[in-house]
Design brief:
heterodimer, A: about 240 residues, mainly alpha, two-stranded antiparallel ribbon, 10 helices, 2 strands, B: about 250 residues, alpha+beta, SH3 type barrels, five-stranded antiparallel sheet, 7 helices
Amino acid sequence: MLRRFGSARFSYYVQRYADRVGHRGGALRVAEAADGWNLLESHVQISKTRPGKRYKDWLFARAKRGGPDHFLALMESGATLLMRTVVRIYLRKEHHARFMASLQAPRGGTDGEGTYTLEDLIPDASAHPADEVSEREWRELAIRHATDFFETMEFREVVTLWARGRGINLCDRRLLNWAGYSESALYKEYRKFLEKMGSVIKKFYPEESPEALVRMGVMIHEELGAMCEKKISVQKGVPRCFRKA
Amino acid sequence: MKFPSYNLTRHPGRGREREKLAAWLAERELDQHLGGDEPPVKASNMLRYEMQKDRATSVPFQAGDIALFKPATNESRAWGPVYAFLLERIAEKGRWLAVPFSRYAMPAVPGEWRTKLSADALQVLCIWNAREVVERRFLPGAVKHLPDEQRERIRGVYREVFGFRDSATTASFSDDFGPPLLHPVDPRYAYLDEERVRLDEHTGEAEALSEDESDEEGPLENGFSPIEKSEWLLAAEGRPKYGKPPD
């Protein structure tokens, strides 16, 4: 019974993955599906000792919360959750060659998000100003751009950038309750703002390298974070936990 | 207008950082492809396992143990069991300084560290997400105990991440940390938010947040006070932009 369950769930997730990446048969073999349950035991356990298999206690504790009527259904959904992790580990280990990517290859782009490359995310260190004078000039430019942005920013953008600057989770309920926005609204706002900032920087400096533009974007972001902090610090109603000591 | 000049010299470390980031992104994308609606559940009598109170459950935790959190109240944000390393006991508060393990096998950011432990669930420690946790949040009994030497190593990493720098440890740990977070739209921000929430759901902080709302002085109406609103509207009327746009 367990083997059948493991096999079915394993195949389900491997198939889901194949469908979503547009995989057309062949390389992604699912012969291992028959061993789905064994794979679960070997990937999820910490060791072969009983304490190392405490994930079973986790499954039972989770199932008991639903009461006797839902016990088995919750057991099954818990095991399914574990199997999803197992399939992820299996695909990472067995099909890792598929994930090799070039530095310039666009990634992301799902759910309406923009794309990025590895080079965008970790630009060449050479793009950083090497000496004090250029650092100062870069910073001055960033401050001037940040000031322009700040003057036209809506309150929602101020809240979002302030939260990001302070490392506050955009899903934090205290933040959402105070500001009166939904979590998705803040995420959307943040992305929209970054896209706007990116297009403005590109427009001003069309001949600069992507690394330089990213560097400028990061600096503007830092400056805006400081400006937003000042703005928010004089606001009434800011939860105490967000105030600086 | 041009940027100030800068020297074009290659940074030798970037290649390795990009490699690590590529590996992390690959697993992240894989995870996202697997996500979505879960398969339908058909309850049956196929699972038979009696939770036994073995000897381990009666043994109290000690520093160096790996503990398993009790299931989260909101499973939709939990993604399965969460393990944590118990770094030290904070006796006066009756809590543990617990460092959670990541869902992924590669460190995502400089605050995450590869442990090189063999179990898949214990590959990466999220030092940045360390918390004080009450003991009752864990399932009874340690999953594993790490020897003192490893515990001291993790303590060194913890000190490294939280800024108690020691040049000797920096050199030996650097390659096991995650790549830097530089770009404002880096997808790792979303992951960090998820991990914070994931742990909130396990430590009870998510529940405490709703109780904590009395802490506020009252929400702003539409996010603005009336004076603020007029100031912002004035600001929105615009000023000449800095610099000239390209032709």
